[in-house]
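Allow me, if you will, to draw on your knowledge of protein folds for a short while. Thank you for your consideration; the sequence and its tokens are set out here:
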Amino acid sequence: MTPDLNAIIANLIEDLAEIQESKQSQMGYRRAAHAVLLLEQPITALIEPGADLPVIPNVGPKSLRVIKDVLETGRSDTVEAAVDASGQRTAIDWRRARRINFLSRARVIEALEDPRLGGPRRADYLGDLQMHSDWSDGKTTVAAMAAACVERGYRYAAMTDHSHGLPSAHGLTRDDLNRQRAEIDEVNQTLGDRFCLLAGVEANIGLDGSLDLTAAELGAVDLVVAAAHAGLRVPGDQTRRMIAAVQTPGVHVLGHPRGRVRGNRHGIEADWDLVFEAAARANVAIEIDGDPARQDLDHAMARRAIDAGCVLALDSDAHAPMELGFADIALAHARLAGVPSDRILNCWPLGRLLDWLGRRG
């Protein structure tokens, strides 16, 4: 595919934001970058032949100069000169390295609609296996999240609120998990055969690779997503930590594996091919988290996971109903990686998924 020009342009405008001395200028450039990232068409598709650049809300003349540079040369000497003059070249290069393989909204739509790409289509996606409610750090109830999933046409989903080892996210105790299970059972009774809400948990991976839940607690839920939330900026190899996590009995999915955040955090350093091989042997799925700031794994690493023999889970990591659409980003990465639908948990019929979950648990 052609380069993701919207992402390239947004990244360069963000570079300008980083070197501004005034908060007002910083916010102006950040709004412009965000506007470009959220455009539903490539910049080139918005330009009429022989016409000037269109008006884009929140994108001012200085940001338009960056757009013109990129359209003419594929880069922006304007930005490079400003970065050099600021004396912040090292800091900007650091942030650039943490924006690699993040897709713009236009590229996500293009990937979903491009018939030349293989992999899962929206119609193949039967349910989201990582989302959160107000039991932990979500914004709404279990019932509201389930209703939103039904509205999207899903056949199933998993409620995976954080476990108690993550107090910053109001993680659930064992008693909380039991009470939430009762609420999930009520939702399933209400919805009947048209939808199944699984009781899950997002367990926290400690620095030594152990989880913050006992074997009994892991066995009390239908689906366990194991994810790291600490030690994500620690330099040095953490391969043993991640292998220990996927080898833990009862774990089904390794969630947002690297723990990266766009422009801010590179995430865990590890020999990921070894981690993927260990996950494949343990029959643990690797997640593509569709949160726009995470996009973790990205399509390049997802291809490596598939080559290692892994199955994948494509999830929104939604904390509110409107965020369920983040699953599109995960789907786009899977399509760009050419992941077969048969290797994706979310594309399996409920019976097959439950059988797989039972064997893993």
